[in-house]
Amino acid sequence: MLLHRSRPDVKDVADRIWYPLWDSGVALDHSVRTLDEAVDVARTDLKAALGLLDLRHVAGAADLTSALRTKVFEAWRRDARRRLPDLYAATRERAEKYGELAFLLEPDLKESRGGLRDVHAIAAAAAAWVADAPTEDVRDAASRLMDVRGELHRRSSRSGDRLVLQEHSSVATALDYSDADALMRDVYDAARTIAFAADETWRRVMSALQPPRRWRQRQPTRRPLADGVVEQEGEVVLARDADPALDPVLVLRVAAAAAQAALPMSRHTLDRLADHSAPMPEPWPPAARDALLSLLGSGPDLIPVWEALDQRGIVVRLLPEWAAVRCHPQRNAIHRFTVDRHLVEAAVEASALTRRVSRPDLLLIGALLHDIGKGFPGDHTDAGVEVVPVVGARLGLPAADIDVIVSLVRHHLLLPDTATRRDLDDPATVRMVADAVGDRTTLELLHALTIADARATGPAAWGEWKAQLVGDLVNRTAVVLAGAPAPVAGLLDGSQLALARAGTLDVEVSGDRVTVVAPDRPGLLWRWAGVLALHRLQIRSATATSVERTAVTVFDVSPRFGSQPDWSAVRADLRRMYDDASSLSAALAERDRAYARATHEPVPPRVIWADDASDSATVIEVRAHDTVGLLYRLTAALAEAGLDVRSARMSTLGAEVVDAFYVVGADGKMIEDPLQRQRIEDLLVTACRGPS
Fold it and tell me: pLDDT tens for residues 333-360?
């Protein structure tokens, strides 16, 4: 801004300043205003007002800059009752648009919630004299984000303020972080500090803007919430005789009371608890464990209370292992949150399922700890199994309860992985799950944990199809644990049998299930898979069987982009490809080229031989990047290897798939020859690479 006192030659002065800057390549947002013009703009334009609240003198008449600063701040304070609600609304709108910086793989360092704009908003509220100025912690967090933003701008003008994935490693190296994860942990930590401070600021602002109370109501009321804990003016505070230095459990009682009452803890109370709480005895006394369970069982109101404890360092003091997962990034598109927030979200989801289990306490603790191993080296499940007994002993849990939680951590992926990747009609599948789980109590806990974990992960991790499969597996396992044989569903229902006995090529569509019957011949599975892929259908499972000389293939499908295909066109293509599939490969390759391709090389595919997964077939698991027609290429490769695919299960995790095939050789026997296995593996890896 070029500020002047109605100077007549101001245009010439402006030209002598702006043009050299523009000629040098500097992008300059500029304005030329008198003192009154600048004040008028600030009173009507929120963005301009925020900019002027941060004005700094560069050159010229310093007294003119000082005069503008005084007038802008006076106007801002005078109009605070009108301007601050507008600023709050803009802040919420920005958060809705740009998301939460602390949980995004590619956050906008300026606009996302917890970003630099929020620091400016905190300062603006303080300038109105209704809230405190940014604390040292907030200023430090802002400085860290500015360092990252500055390096990002230096390296790439295309990214703007968005810290894109391809810049993580280079920015980390330039700023002396050990790796990209260390960079993102620091970015997330800074964002959470700012977001927490912003929430606290807006509570103060909204309280200050309330109409003043009548004189008869000036004495605040104090409502008891728990031993040593009361509510005062909408916040949780300590009772007058409460002393955290003498009562180590008080911190958890305060947190539990706040979450159960859906109220924030006051800043003063948090500071006292953080600075003066006595160390928690080890093992924890029963009262502390009860307070923790009350906190974990409070539902969504757990989240802000846990965050408040975390911001004051109380969580890590109570659970030192939490430091390993705090702000730990998850570089997986299906995960919405960092590891620590995912664990808290899982506890929230588990709290809604406590009526379904006989040991809700173990469910809540298991949900909080199921991924704790992700902060430690090695496989996260193995690491978790090592960490959980240490945490359980600290909490004062009995050995038998610790064993159950260890089992939950060890097997927290067992049900979804088995249900989506294995044939539930194979007796070996259910027997394996029953042996791993061991008893009905653990099974019901594991089922509830599976649901909580998936819902906390994100929409892509749970849905009706997966819920049905997991529920079916749990029901079958419960039967085996009760001592009965594993139930086996009939492969075909009456309608499908009638189609098969007709002996002609036909297609039946029932909801998301597609049944294709045709006179048997080699290569039908890959033909049908290719046709369904052409019509933008994602295959989740496939089962092939025969009735006399008729092949029956049953697919569970879902539209790849949400809309159902033209089923008459699907039927026509199935009939056409039965007679001549020579054009199928080219058509799929053309379809594949129509989709956007990844800009980076995906992780190489992997083939796994699950030799203990079935007594009657060899199970081959393929883990690869998802592409159009992948199942077609994989089943064609298996056919080329001379294998008969009895059934297949497809599990999609974001852009990755895990496809499991139950196969036998031409002689009906399992595949054991190492040379034959190597050839099959080579064919499958080649198929994963897509059309040439």
Answer: 788 999 999 999 999 999 999 999 999 9
Residue range 29-63, pLDDT digits in tens = 889 999 999 999 999 999 999 999 999 999 999 99
Burial class (CB in 10 A: 0-12, 13-18, 19+), 553: buried
Tell me if 218 is assigned to some domain. no
Say if residue 73 is in the same domain as residue 104.
no
Give the separation between CA 19 and CA 453, rounded to whole angstroms: 59
How far is Cα 57 from Cα 54, in angstroms, rounded to an integer? Answer: 10
Here the CATH number for the domain that contains residue 412 is 1.10.3090
- The rounded distance, in Å, linking the Cα atoms of 607 and 283 is 46
Residue with the two structure tokens 């940014």: 134
Last residue of a domain, one of 420, 446, 481: 481
Q: Are 253 and 230 in contact (CB under 8 A)?
A: no
What was the pLDDT predicted at 394? Answer: 97
| Residue linked to tokens 């599976």 | 450
- Partner residues linked to 109 by β-bridges: none
466 and 506 together in one domain: no
Return the SS3 of 650: strand
8 A C-beta contact, residue 1 and residue 38: yes
Q: Which residues pair with 551 in a beta bridge?
A: 518, 546
67 CB neighbour count, 10 Å cutoff = 15
| Domain that includes residue 348, residue range | 232-481
**Which amino acid belongs to residue 553?**
T
Q: Are residues 48 and 99 in the same domain?
A: no
Kindly state the tokens that stand for 437.
């789980």
Within a domain: 554: yes
- What is the distance between the alpha carbons of residues 476 and 498, in angstroms, rounded to a whole number? 28
Q: Is 643 helix (H, G, I), strand (E, B) or coil?
A: coil
CA distances from 98 to 139, 142, 143, 203 (A): 22, 18, 21, 22
Q: What are phi and psi of 249, to 5 degrees?
A: -85, -10
Burial label, 465 (beta-carbon count in 10 A; 0-12, 13-18, 19+): middle
Please answer whether residues 424 and 649 qualify as being in contact, where contact means their C-beta atoms are separated by less than 8 angstroms: no
Report the C-alpha gap between 395 and 366 in whole angstroms.
13
pTM, rounded to two decimals = 0.86
How many whole angstroms separate alpha carbon 234 and alpha carbon 232? 6
3 closest CA partner among 80, 48, 92, 63: 63
Query: Which residues in the chain come in under a pLDDT of 50?
Result: 216, 599
pLDDT at 599: 47
